[in-house]
Design brief:
heterodimer; A: about 325 residues; mainly alpha; Fusion Protein Consisting Of Minor Coat Protein, Glycine Rich Linker, Tola, And A His Tag, Chain: A, Domain 2; 3-stranded antiparallel β-sheet; B: about 240 residues
Chain lengths: ~325, ~240
């Protein structure tokens, strides 16, 4: 016994010594501190619509503030202008007329009355009857008192040049203030608005576009199968479904079929009916549902979401058809 | 907060190390006791294994030598005379016990031959039982260590994992650096338990097989020897009758 004990102790000591020598300390691992991951809880909705945000996506500035500044500039028309940001195209049509109209006040002194009158007649035929050629020599009592006086004083067309120029500006200034006619507003503000608008490329302007561009880029990596895909599957099945319409109480023959799908869209195994009913026609309805499932395969579904449609439960409700 | 705890845990792990002694010294006292018990059990098991292995080898050699001498044609009286002076084991012990009984039965004027064969059988069976007991002694320790060792190691492991979960609760961090040292030292206890138990089980099976072989060989010899002696007894009884 002593021999065995001595040998055993010696052997254990030798193994321990060898293991201490042969096994150096395990490499100490440095545990990296885990970075906090911000998580935002998304409200649960009926339809899954998650688009992955990307930090590299460009952040588009909102065009709105510019429009507001335009509004603030034109104090006079603020009441009428509230809707103008939306109908910017209307303003953009104007520049041709607006440009021709803008130089008017400065050029008018030299320009003949006819030339000055013509653009006005084009843009605003209604409120200015004065500049028209036939009327010019005659006194005009109605629109403005000043031009009348001048016209009376110098009835000849040759002298029109100077007096004609002055009367025209006042009516233009007055008209916008007096009548809130949109046409005159446009012609008046057009150069200012268009000048401002031209600096900023007008983007769609819709509120939705600006929301969508807040650093979010849709990569189409929606994880969950959305309702539309399930609906698509249901629609594919329903094409082949031939329910027992003539059966009694057919609208109550709701059949729920559970099936397993392969990756290529074919049904694996046989679909099972998971509900039951006391209706004598239920068996026929169940058979028709099962036939429909088998007849319409393979189903066309996105392969990357195979996990979500591997096991599918489809409800056949005849009321959908009625 | 979290990162500082993790760094502290990593420092702790790096400081004490994962060497065998590191694992031992940083363990809980209960786990230490379990480890020491398992190591001593392993030492004891190996001592028994070596001892028994040597004993069985010696026994088999002695049996071979005795059988050679027994079947060599030499007189049983001479063989008994040479063997009676020393301590005998196995076959020689059976032979000496039987011959002693034989001699004692032939003492005096009227040899007691009538139930001598039964007495011889009893004596030899007794000797075989005694020899078997001697050969099998301490093999039960191997069996016990083999069956209980893993459980004892598992107890140490469970205790160590309890301690490391308490460490989680104290540090309020589930970081691996906090948990890993405790689990490593806890698993070391199971490793020691298996280390002690596996050789114990293997050698228990081997040694108990050896013992049963030796005992069956002794049984065979006893039967053979009894057959020779009873033949002799019957002849002498026949002589006495006439």
């Amino acid at each position: 016994m002593r021999v065995g004990l001595i040998v055993s102790v010696a052997g254990h000591g030798a193994i321990l010594l060898w293991s201490v020598i042969a096994w150096p300390d395990a490499e100490s691992f440095a545990a990296k501190p885990i970075e906090a991951l911000p998580i935002e809880l998304v409200t649960i909705g009926e339809v899954t619509d998650i688009s992955m945000g990307s930090p590299t996506a460009p952040v588009e500035p909102e065009p709105k503030p510019e429009v507001e500044s335009v509004e603030s500039e034109s104090e006079a028309e603020s009441a009428g202008e509230t809707e103008t940001p939306a109908d910017s195209p209307a303003e953009r049509e104007n520049p041709s007329t607006a440009e021709s109209a803008a130089p008017l006040p400065s050029e008018e002194p030299e320009a003949p009355a006819e030339e000055a009158a013509e653009p006005e007649a084009e843009s605003e035929p209604e409120p200015e009857p004065a500049p028209q050629e036939e009327v010019q020599p005659e006194p005009e009592p109605e629109p403005q008192p000043e031009p009348e006086q001048q016209a009376e004083a110098e009835p000849t067309p040759s002298t029109d040049v100077v007096p004609r120029a002055r009367p025209t500006p006042p009516p233009r200034r007055q008209q916008p203030t007096q009548s809130a006619a949109s046409q005159s507003n446009e012609s008046f503000d057009a150069d200012r608005i268009s000048a401002l608008l031209n600096k900023v490329e007008p983007s769609g302007g819709g509120s939705g576009a600006s929301q969508a561009s807040a650093g979010i880029r849709s990569d189409g990596t929606n994880a969950a199968m959305t309702m539309t895909e399930l609906d698509a599957l249901r629609a594919q099945i329903q094409r082949c479904w031939n329910p027992p319409i003539g059966a009694q109480g057919a609208e109550d023959l709701i059949v729920t079929v559970q099936m397993a799908l392969n990756q290529n869209g074919t049904v694996s195994g046989s679909p099972t009916i998971t509900n039951s009913s006391s209706n004598p026609f239920f068996q026929a309805a169940a058979d028709s549902a099962r036939r429909a499932v088998l007849r319409c395969q393979p189903y066309n579904l996105p392969l990357e979401k195979y996990d979500t449609w591997r096991e599918v439960r489809v409800t056949f409700d005849p009321r959908d058809l009625f | 907060m979290d990162s500082t705890v993790a760094v502290a845990g990593a420092d702790l792990a790096a400081h004490s190390g994962f060497s065998l002694f590191g694992l031992f010294w940083q363990a809980h006292i209960v786990v230490k006791i379990v480890m020491l018990g398992l190591i001593s059990a392993s030492v004891w098991c190996w001592a028994i294994i070596i001892d028994k292995w040597l004993l069985y080898r010696r026994t088999r050699a002695a049996m071979n030598r005795f059988e050679d001498a027994f079947w060599s044609g030499q007189s049983l009286e001479d063989l008994f005379r040479t063997l009676s002076g020393r301590t005998n084991h196995a076959l020689s012990a059976i032979f000496v016990a039987a011959m002693t009984e034989w001699k004692r039965s032939h003492e005096g004027d009227h040899p007691a031959l009538a139930s001598l064969s039964q007495r011889l059988d009893r004596v030899m069976t007794l000797t075989i039982a005694r020899e078997g007991e001697r050969l099998e002694s301490k093999l039960a320790v191997l069996a016990s260590v083999g069956s209980a060792g893993p459980f004892i190691g598992l107890f140490g492991t469970v205790w160590g994992i309890m301690t490391s979960f308490q460490a989680i609760a104290v540090s309020e961090s589930t970081n691996l650096a906090v948990v890993a040292p405790g689990i490593a030292e806890a698993l070391f206890a199971t490793a020691l338990g298996l280390l002690a138990a596996i050789p114990a089980v293997i050698f228990f099976n081997k040694l108990s097989g050896d013992v049963s072989k030796i005992i069956s060989r002794m049984d065979a010899f006893a039967d053979e020897f009894l057959a020779i002696l009873t033949r002799e007894i019957d002849e002498r009884l026949e002589e006495e009758r006439y």
